[in-house]
């Protein structure tokens, strides 16, 4: 009989690549992971791993077993959801992850609604970059999360997860130099190639988005500053330290000296959870609360400016949609 816990370890190894990474993510020792995987091989009766020095790769039989493990783990999520649904009222911890701008603009409103409608539920928030969400969900460190993707950085397909769209927001070039009339088109980024740039930290989706957008415009940005908070990014722009790309939700604080030029680029926010968990009443409640809280933000994707007046100056020229 195959052990589900060991199947989960095999699935994690297929995704993370090394036994050390699996051990760190799931709070095991590397030796414990190796022992559990060896036991799984004995249960399976066929080799599942090939060891070459320090490297471990899955055999074809191991890869096939991972596909079965995905289906089994999804059914377990569904079973857990059905059991939770049979109980009266929602209670216990619910772990919600979000990137910083969503954590500020959406999550507090959703938490207020959850506290009002489900007082025995215990939501627990975690600020996390979208790049780390998939592993956190699969490891059970999160139950539901808000992630985002950009036009130049689409979300990868993540085994074991379900992703649902939430809303879309426009992107802007933030600078202290207003563009000349008629300049707000696809060449806006190219016109800033000689400017110093402000980006997020390497390894984040925001940093990758800026680099790829500049490369698509024909140059590699000359990065002067790195900051992960858009409030800090706009403060640096206001200090004439460079230009930056910011999404609608990143426009915070009164910055009348900063000009925001619309771009034919967008950022899309999505809800992520483990496949099969959509039937869990707590996950369903959190998803509904997040959708309601994001209602005002969704209007921005249709061209609204609700959060921008009195904060930064927007150039009136409009970009064509991509």
From TrEMBL:
Residue ranges constituting the HTH lysR-type domain according to the UniProt record: 2-59
InterPro entries found in the cross-reference section: LysR_HTH_N, LysR_subst-bd, WH-like_DNA-bd_sf, WH_DNA-bd_sf
Keywords assigned by UniProt, alphabetized: DNA-binding, Transcription, Transcription regulation
Gene3D superfamilies tied to this protein: Periplasmic binding protein-like II, Winged helix-like DNA-binding domain superfamily/Winged helix DNA-binding domain
Keyword hit for Zinc-finger: no
Stated family: Belongs to the LysR transcriptional regulatory family.
Name of protein: LysR family transcriptional regulator
Species the sequence originates in: Streptomyces halobius
């Amino acid at each position: 009989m195959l052990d589900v816990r060991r199947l989960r370890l095999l699935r994690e190894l297929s995704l993370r690549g090394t036994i050390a990474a699996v051990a760190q993510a799931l709070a095991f020792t590397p030796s414990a992971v190796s022992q559990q995987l060896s036991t799984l091989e004995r249960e399976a009766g066929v080799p599942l791993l090939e060891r070459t020095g320090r490297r471990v790769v899955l055999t074809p039989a191991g890869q096939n077993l991972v596909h079965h493990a995905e289906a089994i783990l999804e059914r377990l999520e569904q079973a857990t959801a059905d059991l939770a649904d049979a109980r009266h009222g929602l209670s216990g911890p619910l772990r919600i992850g979000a990137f910083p701008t969503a954590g500020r603009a959406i999550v507090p409103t959703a938490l207020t609604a959850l506290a009002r409608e489900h007082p025995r539920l215990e939501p627990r928030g975690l600020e996390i970059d979208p790049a780390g969400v998939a592993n956190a969900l699969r490891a059970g460190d999160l139950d539901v999360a808000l992630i985002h993707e950009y036009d130049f950085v689409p979300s990868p397909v993540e085994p074991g997860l379900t992703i649902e769209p939430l809303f879309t927001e426009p992107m802007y070039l933030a600078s202290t130099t207003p563009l000349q009339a008629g300049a707000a088109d696809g060449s806006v980024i190219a016109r800033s190639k000689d400017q110093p740039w402000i980006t997020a930290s390497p390894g984040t989706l925001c940093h990758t988005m800026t680099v790829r957008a500049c490369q698509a415009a024909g140059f590699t940005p000359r990065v002067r500053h790195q900051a992960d908070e858009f409030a800090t990014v706009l403060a640096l722009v206001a200090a004439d330290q460079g230009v930056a790309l910011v999404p609608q939700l990143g426009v915070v604080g009164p910055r009348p000296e900063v000009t925001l030029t619309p771009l034919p680029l967008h950022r899309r926010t999505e809800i992520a959870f483990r496949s099969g968990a959509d039937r869990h009443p707590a996950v369903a409640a959190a998803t509904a609360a997040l959708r309601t809280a994001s209602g005002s933000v969704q209007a921005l994707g249709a061209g609204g400016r609700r959060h921008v007046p009195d904060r930064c100056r927007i150039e009136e020229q409009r970009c064509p949609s991509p």
